[in-house]
Amino acid sequence: MSDKKQWQAPVDIPLDQVDHQPAQEESFAHAREVPVEQVVSVTEEAPKVEREPAVRVRKSRWRKVFALSAGVVLFAAVVSEVNRLVDWAFSLHVTVGYAAVAVVTTAVVSAGMWLLQGMRGLRQLKAREDIRARAQQMTEGQGEAIQLIKTIEAHYQDNTRGAKQEFLAAVHQLDSAYNDKEVVRYLSAHGLTQQDEAAKRCIQRYSVHSGVLVAVSPFATFDMWLVGWRNLRMLRELAEIYGISAGATAQWQLLKGVLHNIAFAGLSEVTIHAGTHVLGGSLSGAVSARIGQGIGAGLFTARSGLHAMRLCRPLPDDGHVKLDLSTISAAIQQDLNRKSG
Amino acid sequence: MGLKKRLKGLLGDDLVDDLHGQVKDVLEHGLDRHVRIAVTGMSRSGKTVFITALTQHLLASDKGESLPFFALSSSDQIISVKLLPVDKDHAFPLQTAVQNLAAEPPTWPASTTGLSEVRLAIRYRPASRLQRLVSDIATLYVDIIDYPGEWLLDLPLLHKSFEQWCSEQRELFALAPRAALAADWLAAQAAIDWSQPVDQAQLSILNREYVKLLHLFRSEQYGMSVIQPGRAVLPAELENDTLIELFPLIATKPAGTLEDNSGYRVMEQRYLDYREQVIKRFYREHFARFDRQVVLVDCLKTLNKGQQCFDDMRLAVTDVLQSFNYGPSGFLRRLLSPRIDKVLFASTKADHVTANQHHNLDRFLELIIADARREMQFEGIETTCMALASVRSTEAAEAVLDGQTISCLKGYKKASGEPVALFPGEVPIELPTEKDWHSQRFRFVDFAPRKLPMQQLRPEHHIRLDQAIEYLLGDLF
Ligand SMILES: Nc1nc2c(ncn2[C@@H]2O[C@H](COP(=O)(O)OP(=O)(O)OP(=O)(O)O)[C@@H](O)[C@H]2O)c(=O)[nH]1
Ligand SMILES: [Mg+2]
């Protein structure tokens, strides 16, 4: 008798006591109503994966002292210099003085705003990473996804380019029978389509651009700068597409992530790379070395773009973040042929 | 380019162009793939409903609305899907089934009594550039056959001698509920000396009794699965044929050498004839060439009925699955002798339980198919388990009882058509104990279908059918 309460017995319910749930909205509100015991057992089953501890580079104490003192010196220098500038301006004429003050204030305020915006982007990026991690840990139970959806929804406050509407539309389409994992998969596939498409178009455009630029630039030393420049612009645009405040810090963070990824690129990506080269080559006969470099630069840009896309998406990617790299090399060649022909 | 010109110089324009066309043709046909899906399931497990729903959703898949997890459909790559004509006597009664499900009130298809086939052609735009180099359009042909679940149980007999079969049946007949139900028949059989010639009339009587018993075993009340030979309960074209007058000899094999006209030898000969002329033909014509397999299992029935039903089902499923060809199948292998390289185990009728029980249903299914699955995985076959409903016939709802909110189901009873709302109980993830089987732990009722419209199918008309399709076909595009 003591184990009687281990399972819930079947119940017949008088029809008039049933709240019918419309398929919309409430179908996932229903998903919350999982018995508490179950929720607990589920989290127990899926223990958090311990992050690999990063190798800490020990920082010297002297370095800190140096950085601090150098910062103070620099700050003092700047302040005194600005002070002198203003003084000098006043000594010329009062109006010039006020103008100088105005310019300096604008510079300081805008710098502050810029920094703030950048910090916001950084926070957003970090938050997305957390959301992705949470999404990845969803189990086959029900009831956790609803929290996640709320979090993501809150992220799309400013509704950039109808992103929020699209996401909410997908949420409405969710079926009451989906488990948490399926909810995440569904939203990743159907809730971000417009943004994904825009991002892919953006990557395609910048890749072809940088490929062509490199191929036609006469100065080999410029190439790196060209590619870097296009890449930064692209990262910025991608961040904006996914509704991330595209300040310099966010851009920098993305760049770091992308570079990290490229440094540790898996073998599979390298093989895809080689494959597309071969394909591109056999299509057009011999490819000149210059064009080859162009294509290389284009593919590099595309790859960094794809990785940035993964970092900006609020949901993990299962196969949506991909581009046919061979179309990029083909487009670069076409563009060049058009130009030369 | 240069090569083609030189060839033209050597061989003449026409020939080269012709060859070129032919090569292109071959390449294009190389893209057009053929896949045969085996839908396996005991009787009343939901094969016909599954095939009907699958076909109907696929036919509408170019609209990309009802199968969100079928990537090809949701990415709008499907151009069109059509039914291919099949031989008239063997056409799957799709129209009837669809009409019945769309009628007012909608009804389930009738139990299948013969063999039938559906052939679909899915025309799509390949995604990979490599494929597009060859052709912008490709076609996948899908063949599915439907048959009465009873016949499936004949397949294991292919690998068994009469003696083996009898000894297996002997073990079964020693258990409840068979032992009690068949007591009279067993006694009558034991009274006969099988080493001597046996009167034909006597055999007929025994056979008639045996068939009656089989019908009783598989009735609602007992729900047994191992019913052999299958044609005894569903003869189709073999009605009144002496070929199917066959039953196992439960008494041990008589000792000593046996005359050819002894009762034992006569029954053995019948068994061999049945195997040769009925099973082997059926197997060779319809079961030998499959690429993918769906195993449909009605887990809820076993939970409703109890331990014996569960054990019998497990035995039947394991036994049947040994009759299929498994093994990795490369491209050439597939052309020459196809083998099943992917198996989907599905517990059907997932709409009979609340959504929060689907995961448990998966786990429970794993219990039933554990042995069969292990062998497949050993052969390197990809397998997965899924709870699905081909035609979803309940709605999720919730109710407040005694201050507690519980999620429940709303639907119409199959038997009476009256509306019901209930929480049908939790699906266990381990074998229930003796006590649980007999308590009022489960109450899974059969539901009448909800109307399945002919147009505008939506994802809420099924549960996970799209994921099943993606699993079965997704890698072939
Ligand atoms: N609620 C619900 N019931 C189903 C579903 N599929 C099958 N059923 C029930 O199961 C019964 C049998 O389904 P069929 O498809 O005819 O089974 P079968 O495997 O073809 O059976 P045989 O032809 O006798 O071998 C139906 O009459 C329904 O009551 C489903 O998706 N949902
Ligand atoms: Mg049927």
TrEMBL record, chain A:
Pfam families attached to this UniProt entry: DUF697
UniProt keyword Transmembrane helix, yes or no: yes
Record-annotated membrane-spanning stretches: 65-83, 95-116
Protein localization: Cell inner membrane
Database matches in InterPro entries: DUF697, UPF0283
GO cellular component: plasma membrane
Name of this chain's protein: TIGR01620 family protein
Species per Swiss-Prot/TrEMBL record: Neptunomonas marina
From TrEMBL, chain B:
Cross-referenced InterPro entries: YcjX-like (IPR007413)
One Pfam entry name: DUF463
Superkingdom field: Bacteria
Descriptive protein name: YcjX family protein
Organism: Neptunomonas marina
